[in-house]
Design a protein that fits this description.
By secondary structure, this protein is of the alpha/beta class. Among the domains are: 400-580, 3-Layer(aba) Sandwich (Rossmann fold), CATH 3.40.50; 592-638, Immunoglobulin-like (Sandwich). The chain contains 18 helices and 25 strands. Helix 17 (468-475) links the parallel strand 11 and strand 12 (478-481). The longest helix is centred in the middle third of the chain and has 29 residues, at 205-233. It starts with a strand and ends with a strand. The structure holds beta-D-galactopyranose. Beta-D-galactopyranose (GAL) binds at residues 141-142, 145, 264, 266, 312, 318, 320, 350, 360, 363.
């Protein structure tokens, strides 16, 4: 795995560039990403290009031997362009155009902005495509950051009408699919369809879902326009950097159009900002949740053509979460090694040096704003030394997959039917249990081939793809479904027929926080929370709710758990299933995680105390660290 950093030559006097480049190389950095926000310096006014500074920066970095990831600067359209082309602005849900003054203020559906995006992409690519040091390209920056996938502009509405027409062909088909007869919502023309934001009460869910799918498609097609232009000029790799805990567009679709999927890993920022409990936020405030980075590594590996990496790695405190603690010493290096263990080909720290000005002045870099080496820099260098000593890592062929679906996330966000229901959280709970068994897990889309997987776990899959059971049969994969699976059609309606053989859905209920339903399984008591399905099955059941309804169905090809299981129950269910499939398990301590490459095992300590890992090491020799693993440290042994 190569190490990289994100560098902003335009933020620093030219005299500093050569020294910076030299110190990058000394640190073990081989790749540097530049220019993703530099439009105003590249083109200070229309067609008045100023390439000199960027040419010089590239030459300086290249002379030091660095490889450059050049970016298209479309995340930050400059002021003159906004003034000239006001219809490029995205609109808020309240129908107001966004203001200039930060970033990502453009609308994915604006034809005039699309033309500008193609124009600047073409200009940058023509300038640098043939430069030998420019070995990869990044399109834009973090599509959708700051909630910008959806725009409620007049252009977006027009494009939505076209999208609907293309999808449904006739307005009758749309009316039928959405069920618009309900509340007299029927349309006689596509042009009558509006946004769903200012309806008095809940808007039609299929309408909302289609708007989300449309908005997602707009991101994908915006990106594709840039990709096509870059590809016409160079064979260099193309990437885009996606975000953690972000699901507003279909990342599987984006990944199909690029060569390397990269993501931006901020374990502490996301712990503090997201749904984790206060106890979890305190426990892992200096390390991040032990499954946060891993989950995203595995997810974005799935959203790639096999090549993926980390484009932005947190080096120290960030500036944007509600609270921004410093990582425990060691974590900034551990995170990089964890990416390598999951198969990343690249891990790049954000950013080289802390900026002394503007919005992100409180965000750490590998160097501080006065150019003094920071803790992140010390750790990047150490990470490089370990990576160097390891040599190339071959990927591990996982036996267990977890099915993650963007459409499912959107469907459940639209009608959660209970305040506790949270699709991503459910997926994390399943993923955590699988990883505490010591397993290395692949995440896959519901449409992915199942060959090689002994078990595929879908924490919840509302729309069951028609060919899923055939694929599973061919691959010999056991399927394991969580609650609400098979509960919707792709049109967002309740299916007439069950997708499951030997399982019929009768009704469901959601449970408020604190409410539980008792489960009796093999004379042990467990509990379910948040959601419960009432199902019928002709099969014998090991587990029943206290009112006698089946809680867990083991059918010929699949398992179905008819509720959101508390961890203890989920652990028992999955342990038995894994054992029956001859997949050995441990039960790791809360703060320890293990990940395999083909011939090595990596153990990571996310806690604040030493952990003895020797009982999880069956054979092999340590190649890094030893059996007593201190906080924020990792050890590696051969298998
Ligand atoms: C990312 C973004 C960077 C920077 C960073 C700060 O989301 O891509 O430009 O803002 O966050 O953590």
């Amino acid at each position: 795995m190569n190490l990289g950093t994100c560098y902003y030559p335009e933020h620093w006097p030219q005299e500093m560039w050569a020294g910076d480049a030299e110190r990058m190389v000394e640190m073990g950095i081989t790749h540097v990403r530049i220019a993703e926000f530099a439009w105003s310096r590249i083109e200070p006014s229309r067609n008045d290009f100023n390439w000199d500074w960027l040419d010089n920066a590239i030459e300086t970095l290249a002379r030091a031997g660095l490889q450059i990831t050049m970016c298209t600067p479309t995340a930050t359209p400059p002021k003159w362009l906004v003034d000239e082309t006001p219809d490029m602005l995205a609109y808020t849900a309240e129908g107001q155009p966004r203001r200039f003054g930060s970033r990502r203020h453009y609308c994915f559906s604006s034809e005039s902005y699309r033309a500008e995006s193609r124009r600047i992409t073409q200009a940058v690519v023509e300038r640098y495509a043939k430069h030998p040091a420019v070995t990869s390209w990044q399109t834009d920056n973090e599509y959708g950051c700051h909630d910008t996938v959806e725009s409620y502009s007049p252009m977006a509405l027009r494009a939505f009408h076209k999208w609907l027409q293309n999808k449904y062909k006739t307005i009758d088909a749309l009316n039928a699919a959405w069920g618009t007869v309900f509340w007299s919502q029927e349309y006689s023309d596509f042009s009558q369809v509006d946004f769903t934001d200012r309806t008095v009460t809940e808007a039609n869910p299929a309408h909302r879902l289609d708007f989300q799918r449309f908005s997602s498609d707009q991101v994908i097609s915006f990106n594709k326009e840039q990709v096509d232009i870059i590809r016409a000029h160079t064979k260099a790799d193309i990437t885009h950097n996606v975000m953690g805990h972000f699901t507003a567009f279909d990342h599987y679709a984006l990944g199909a159009d690029i060569d390397i999927t990269t993501w931006d890993s901020y374990p502490l920022g996301f712990l503090d900002q997201e749904w984790w409990t206060d106890a979890q936020k305190l426990r892992w405030m200096r390390s991040g949740h032990p499954d946060f980075a891993a989950f995203h590594h595995d997810l974005y590996r799935a959203c790639s053509n096999g090549r993926w990496g980390v484009m932005e790695q947190q080096p120290g405190p960030v500036n944007w979460a509600p609270n921004n603690p410093a990582p425990r010493d060691g974590m900034a290096g551990l995170w990089a090694l964890e990416a390598a263990a999951h198969g990343a080909e690249y891990c790049s720290y954000f950013r080289w040096r802390q900026a002394p000005f503007a919005q992100e002045q409180n965000h750490a870099g590998l160097y501080d704003s006065n150019n003094v080496l920071a803790q992140g820099g010390i750790e990047a260098k150490r990470a490089h030394q370990v990576l160097d000593s390891l040599g190339p890592l071959k990927p591990y062929a996982a036996k267990v997959a977890l099915i993650f679906d963007y459409d499912a996330k959107w469907m459940f966000d639209i009608q959660p039917q209970g305040t506790g229901w949270h699709y991503e959280k459910l997926c994390f709970e399943f993923y955590t249990v699988l990883r505490r068994f010591g397993l290395s897990v692949d995440i896959i889309s519901p449409h992915h081939e199942l060959t090689g997987y002994t078990l595929a776990v879908a924490p919840s899959l509302p729309v069951i793809p028609e060919d899923l059971f055939n694929r599973a049969k061919k691959a010999g994969t056991r399927l394991f479904f969580g609650p609400r699976s098979g509960s919707k059609t792709a049109d967002y309606q309740i299916p007439k027929l069950s997708s499951f053989k030997d399982l019929k859905h009768i009704r469901s209920e959601s449970l408020r926080g604190g409410a539980v339903v008792d489960v009796d399984m093999d004379e042990q008591f467990y509990r379910a929370k948040i959601w419960r399905d009432f199902v019928a099955t002709p099969r014998n059941c090991r587990a029943r709710f206290d009112d006698g309804f089946p809680a867990y169905v083991e059918a010929e090809m699949f398992d179905y758990v008819a509720a959101w299981p508390e961890t203890k129950w989920l652990r028992a269910l999955l342990r038995d299933r894994l054992e029956s499939l001859d997949i050995p398990t441990y039960w790791l301590p809360k703060d320890l995680r293990i990940r395999r490459s083909e011939d090595k095992v990596f153990a990571f300590n996310y806690g604040a105390k030493d952990i003895d890992v020797t009982r999880f090491k069956k054979d092999g020799e340590f190649v890094h660290g030893s059996g007593i693993l201190p906080p924020a440290k990792f050890c590696i042994w051969t298998t």
